[in-house]
## 1
Amino acid sequence: MDARQVSAMHALPDGEAEISLVVRLPWEDVARLGQEAGRLAAQMQRPVTLDEAVSHRLRSTRPSASHAKPLAEQPAAVSANASVASLPRLSGTA
């Protein structure tokens, strides 16, 4: 079975969801994610994967609400050409 045919979303016992996806990024964005992983690894005192770095970055930049907003309140769709560079920077990072 092709990996793309496997279910891309799984419910986790802690109430969260795990979503698998393929993202095409320019190398400079991959480098930024590597830097993010390095900062997170230093903070956590253990090795960190790019997956963990992305998850941490998404969690740290989202609104504080723990549930989805009604469709009418959703922001406009993000451009397919959006990059990691367009994400808000974490405080204390260059």
## 2
Amino acid sequence: MSQLKVVLSGGPLDFPEKEREQIVSVIAEKIKHRWGAGYEHFVHDGEFATVDGEKVAVYHWERRTAIAE
């Protein structure tokens, strides 16, 4: 299984920078990342960027949902 680096863009202003780089096994359409008392939803629309000489998929923030009880 390969490890791919992706970058999460946008979202809440206090979303930590260290959380913005994620490792995934496949480039999917969406990523749901648990943070605080909810989930941040990010979507991939085909955009890629070069970070530290490496091509990475860029996911843009779409919305936040609460954690169901």
## 3
Amino acid sequence: MATRPITGTIAGFVLRTARESVLLTQAGMAEALGVDLASVQGWESGRRPIANMRAVDLLGLRRRLAGLGADAAIVALLDAAMDADRIIAATLQPVEGPHPLAEWVHTRDTAHMLAWALTGIRPPSLAGIPAPRRRGPAADSPLLASPDRAAFFERLRNTAEAAPRTDAQGVLLHRQALYLTSYDKSPEAVAWTAQALHARRGLLARRGWTPQWAEARSTATALARLGDPVPLLDFIERAMVDDDAGEAANLNYWAYWLGGTPLPQSDDMFMRDRQLTGWDPVTLLRGLTYGLHHAPGYVDLYAHTMWALLSAHPWLPQASGLLVRDLAERTERLLDGGGISERSRRELTSVHYVLRDRT
């Protein structure tokens, strides 16, 4: 299946969104940046990827956007957008060298950028930013054309199947590619992904921390995305509860996933840090509070992680009054509703009790 070159579409759309946040036209942006109109048009369309800019020019672009008053939440997504562009380009037009999914553990922002391009779903971090009204048939997301999405998922499935499972890079490539296939909701694709994931369910039977812990977690969360929360609930019970190494791995992964770890990680070994160093607990608490996912299975993972974080850092409720009040309100709504396991209800009750004493 032939595809047209796709290199900078997502980052270009993020740049356009940043421009629109300060109500500038392309011509106005060009004038403000001191470049020609064709440059801005090329960046935003992806024909001239901003990732190909010199580092000093890209740094200057970021700072100029901030100086113009562009929304900081949008500008902050440029790195993740460039990562997502690179993943898509490497999947559609493979080149020599390792696939980007084998090079680093991607974060939530990168996953959200990929989801934006593959499903059209707007990133939650932009939920509070109104989409501007546009004249004419302008796209309201960087959604890839249907043939490109089909080609991407087909080649991603091939990548997952062909990934060697004999080294850390191959394992990382396999699990991240397989997880991303769960974004394809076509009946045939869902059947393929479910079969591939269920073939790895043996990983979920292992207790506590193992070298396959991250692979098992990815399998369980991908199955939950496909509508089967039971493996994720079982994973929480077997691979985290009453196991210090498993609990630490979960907290370390969440901190990285939510952007609380400053450096990119090339493999899963950072999850083994039982001292919980290298990330800020308040940042993780904030990410969990405002990123709560209510889907079956996911909400239980959030609930257990919140409980484990407050157990590891009991001083956290004193760190931010507003954050604690928001979390107390959210846990109360969860407890008043349904759809959570008995364990999650007990853990959330414990969390709510602690928070209530601090508000």
## 4
Amino acid sequence: MGIRPSLTPAFVAALVCASIAACVTPWTQEAAVSVGAVPSSSAASSAGPSVPGAPVQPPALPGAQRISGNDRVYTADQASNTISVINPATNSVLGTIALGKPRLSPSADVLGAMYDGQIDVHGLGFSRDGKWLDVIDVTTNAVHVIDTATNKVVRTMYVGRAPHEGFFSPDGTRLWVAVRGQDYISVLDWRAGREVDRIYSEDGPSKVVFSPDGTLAYVNHLRASRLDMIDVASRRIIKRLPVPEQAGGSSDEAISPDGRDIWLGMPTNGRTTAVVNARTLRVEAVLNTGPRTNHPNFVTVGGVDYAYQTVGGLNETLVYRRSRTGAPPTLVKTIHNNGHGSHGIWPSPDNTRIYVALQNSDAVDVIDTHTMSVIKTLHVGQSPMALVYVARSTPATTTNNLGRQGLDMRTQNLTLRVPAGSGRGTALVRALPGIDEVTIGATGLPPNHRFTAYAGNGSRTTALMSMMSNQLGNIDEALSYSYFFANHYTSVTLKPGTPPGERQPEPAASQQ
């Protein structure tokens, strides 16, 4: 399978803004764990048929096992560079696994030439037997495998530029990683610690999900309007499905446990696309969901199939009733999350709970799927992005190899003050070691205009940063660093233009 010469992984020195796993056998066994369709009467999972003796992984069809104290919910915490570990039976946060120092930590030169820890812990996946968790670090190009029984990192590898998400092959022998900063999926033999293949796709592959029967893989793209379908055994792209241009690039995707739907989250323009994958390979709907449309996932309750979709810019999780006839899905509930920046989402195997990571509140909402309401909010590491629920059949250690990094740090969400009639937004103030981070998000602004954010307390104001709204009039995620809490600021105001006395930047060539 000819592998092109390796490209030197680039270290992205960004202020904003792990890895491999499973059991090893020859690669030809990659898709041999299951052949054929999953019977609709059985408790099947979009993570695939269970390994003998292993639990069914969510999202699952009705009939899977109940929530267990052996199970774990994980979040990838991008600011604290940790993995938060949650026991879903008790809804308790057990601790965190530190993969690097917190963002801008004064105890480590995180952006310096000698720093060797991880930056921007972001993506998560798991093996079908529940034994292994994979973690992706976007900025340091790392892929880790963690033993879910001991919370211990057992392997770290490095791939190309800016990997985003990875998942284990159906038999757990390989780890497929979407290298979003480039144009390929890296196939890793995690036990041997090496790349064994590259599957070249369109620009910006973002995530890999496998069909319930384990024979197909689907790859979405951030910078291309395509969904690739790959034969797992041969590792060849067998279909490139066009995605409507109005949907835009896709950051996340999920496949339903019946194998029928793939939903693509489109963060840049506020739309999400539902795709029929195995039966018609036809786009059934493009839905206007809202700014920063993030992750989708699936549950079945009372015989009704639902899709849940997080919308970070509105701090909401939308609930759609899925159609079984090819008609567009129907919005049945808007859940207002108990925090800001709704991002990663995953259900329990018994379909009774669904968990939502709140990126800008350092928290996780637990949602009762019968009432479609938030029943508990847990405080986790800083800036949780991806979230997964991993079902396990054997007891896990409670706190071995866990610490407290990223936990119990102060956060405050402020309503952004904006000029009358020109939009709305929020400012998250997050305490980091030695500094505070101010994250600004806004919608409904004049498109392609420059704004400056000011911290204030009464008549006292300080300019924090200047930024541009995008072509949709949104500011998705602008970051500034200052002593916000120590200076007793109480508000953040967004004003047009640059601070007085500062030279107006020249427009970019593409904007002229």
